[in-house]
Amino acid sequence: MRQIKRFFLPLLAAALLLSGCGQTAVEQEPVENVQETQEEEIYTEVTPLEEVDLEDEAVALAGAPAVSTLLLPEASGTLVQSNGKAVIDYSNTADGYVMVKYTAATTKRIKVQVKGPTTTYTYNLAADAAWDTFPLSDGNGTYQVVVYENISGTKYATVLSQSISVTLKDQFAPFLRPNQYVDYSAAPNTVAKAAELTAGMTDPLNKVAAIYDFVVKNLTYDKQLAATVQSGYLPVLDSVLAKKTGICFDYAALMTGMLRSQGVPCKLVVGYAGTAYHAWISVYSEETGWVEGVVYFDGVSWQRMDPTFASSGKQSASIMQYIGDGKNYTAKYLY
Predict the structure, then answer these.
(1) Tens digit of pLDDT for each residue in 98-112?
(2) Which residue among 3, 20, 41, 316 sits deepest, i.e. has the most Cβ atoms within 10 Å of its Cβ?
(3) Dihedral angle at the C-alpha atoms of 67, 68, 72, 77, nearest 10 degrees?
(4) Global confidence as pTM
(5) Pick from 2, 9, 3: nearest CA to 208
């Protein structure tokens, strides 16, 4: 296999932030006792929300050559677990993802958990019979994919579950394709803009710099959205691009989608920036290894760059010093 530079970029869902990228916790209602109903017999188990750690407040506010075609996920139907309510397609785990859809008609809240070897990820799922894609961010190992339906209060029931043994084609597989958080498959304008910004470029590092510069110079922080954003918020990349405003989640998702569409493996990272829940970018190359929180190289040294802080701070010396200090960042999730 040819030696190449490979890069990563991450973002995850974090918590609601009121000012800047601060965090507001979502209150959990006490677990209520649930009456036995005929519907419950389709569930495999009934579990209090706290026991399964379904994080309702997760919203982040504050090496291969570039491929010429988009690597889009597909539900191949080769390996499937299903019942009368939901379907889990795990045909393409080697490519770093599973796909889930909820087929039954319901007004109840639906969630999906992807329990990896070290980390459990919780997502909302629309009951619209459409496929959603979820990355296998923990790498190789055994995963449990579980679909939950809300019964009452904070009590959820397991509708469908599948254990999966995952061996990735390579460690970058989960971070090239679109998923629920970085859905560039539904963002033709974002893909086209990325192609325009990187026209004639073959070096992934140059693509990172071009896309980073565009996002930082053209997007402004949306304080109103940050103060009112609701649980379950997901960036719509073409809308972010058109409005040129967004919260932390939007900044990181837009960059991640652009870079992935250009064949640059990227992770979406959610964690802490100081004491605030936040979303940012990380990059990897075979020459330097992991450089956490970095998307910019000045030709001499790597600089730690969080695109939201860099943009809202107008790249001031104090902001650049802050985001250049690795102690200010603690990763929690990778998407």
Answers:
(1) 999 999 999 999 999
(2) 20
(3) -90
(4) 0.74
(5) 9
Domains in the chain, ordered, with CATH?
A: 38-54+72-169 (2.60.40.10), 184-334 (3.10.620.30)
> 267, 334 in Cβ contact below 8 A?
yes
Phi, psi (deg, nearest 5) at residue 219: -100, 145
What is the total residue count of the chain? 335
Check pLDDT > 80 for residue 59.
no
Cα-to-chain-centroid distance, residue 242: 21
Q: For residues 111 and 185, is the Cβ–Cβ distance under 8 A?
A: no
Q: In this structure, what token pair is assigned to residue 332?
A: 């929690």
In sequence order, which residues have a C-beta less than 8 Å from that of residue 173 and are 6 or more positions away? 94, 95, 96, 136
- Torsion 60-64-68-70 (CA) sign: negative
In the chain, the amino acid numbered 140 is N
pLDDT in tens, 275-288: 777 777 776 555 55
